């Protein structure tokens, strides 16, 4: 067998082994969230709007919801009164120079179902990321904070979708358990 054929066989074997390892460890692509049935049509009421609201609307649409411009009968409402970033100093170096910060992100939300009943009670999600501050590179620091905020926005949208999906699964379980009690 020539060197090229042996090399090619090794590459194919390595690819096959990697595929088996990924399949065996439970790796799978993230699926869309399954929203509660009372959230097929949703109005978003996000304090401050902006990038977070756009990402949340896009994620809800991807999960099968129709985003409505106004609330009304038969329309669920996802209310986000708080979506705020804050920064905290974590450590300081010599001559009281800040060397490390934390970016915190807090979101509070609740959901009224299409029937006007509280579907998801008030929830609070807190996330944070730490970063090193370089006093000699203020432009790089600003872009680093912006990237951290974008990342936290994406993670926050996913966390909200996971909570909505859990509410939908609870919605399916609750009628079955109530029916067995009678």
Automatic annotation (TrEMBL):
<comment type="similarity">
    <text>Belongs to the LptE lipoprotein family.</text>
</comment>
<dbReference type="GO" id="GO:0015920">
    <property type="term" value="P:lipopolysaccharide transport"/>
</dbReference>
<keyword id="KW-0732">Signal</keyword>
<dbReference type="GO" id="GO:0009279">
    <property type="term" value="C:cell outer membrane"/>
</dbReference>
<dbReference type="Pfam" id="PF04390">
    <property type="entry name" value="LptE"/>
</dbReference>
<dbReference type="InterPro" id="IPR007485">
    <property type="entry name" value="LPS_assembly_LptE"/>
</dbReference>
<keyword id="KW-0564">Palmitate</keyword>
<keyword id="KW-0472">Membrane</keyword>
<protein>
    <recommendedName>
        <fullName>LPS-assembly lipoprotein LptE</fullName>
    </recommendedName>
</protein>
<dbReference type="GO" id="GO:0001530">
    <property type="term" value="F:lipopolysaccharide binding"/>
</dbReference>
<dbReference type="GO" id="GO:1990351">
    <property type="term" value="C:transporter complex"/>
</dbReference>
<comment type="subunit">
    <text>Component of the lipopolysaccharide transport and assembly complex. Interacts with LptD.</text>
</comment>
<keyword id="KW-0998">Cell outer membrane</keyword>
<keyword id="KW-0449">Lipoprotein</keyword>
<comment type="function">
    <text>Together with LptD, is involved in the assembly of lipopolysaccharide (LPS) at the surface of the outer membrane. Required for the proper assembly of LptD. Binds LPS and may serve as the LPS recognition site at the outer membrane.</text>
</comment>
<dbReference type="GO" id="GO:0043165">
    <property type="term" value="P:Gram-negative-bacterium-type cell outer membrane assembly"/>
</dbReference>
